[in-house]
Write a structure and sequence with these properties.
With 115 residues, this protein is mainly beta. The protein has a single domain, classed as Beta Barrel (Thrombin, subunit H), CATH 2.40.10. It contains one helix and eight strands, in the order H-E-E-E-E-E-E-E-E.
């Protein structure tokens, strides 16, 4: 494999630290609702650290407070979407680094200045 093809992505990713809420079922089938921090964000997905083992292709709900559409006289709403787990790698003894792809909605702001 050529080095240039190793990190090809369909969307540009931005390193950030923004709060996200993640809900769904873990690999053991247990329901969870966790607050965490996104580490990288693109228009079509994000990555975060979690203590939960999440199965590949699992569906979860992602909420990013204040990053949704702006409504007149209300301001920014929350970005809310369903997502699917596309990557889950054991980061260390405690955390998994999870990558998700949004299903349907795309994140309207994903530049460093917008986040």
């Amino acid at each position: 494999m050529e080095p240039s093809s190793v990190n090809k992505r369909s969307q540009r990713r931005v390193a950030v630290a923004i709060p996200v809420q993640v809900r769904g079922l873990d690999a053991a089938g247990l329901e969870y609702d966790d607050s965490t921090t996104a580490l990288e964000v693109s228009r079509r997905g994000l990555s975060f650290l979690t203590k939960r083992n999440l199965a590949i292709f699992a569906t979860l709900t992602v909420v990013i407070p204040g990053r949704g559409p702006v409504r007149p006289e209300e301001g920014a709403t929350d970005f809310f979407t369903e997502a699917t787990v596309v990557r889950s790698v054991k980061e260390d003894e405690e955390f998994y680094r999870v990558g998700v792809r949004f299903m349907g909605a795309t994140l309207p702001m994903y530049s460093a200045e917008g986040l």
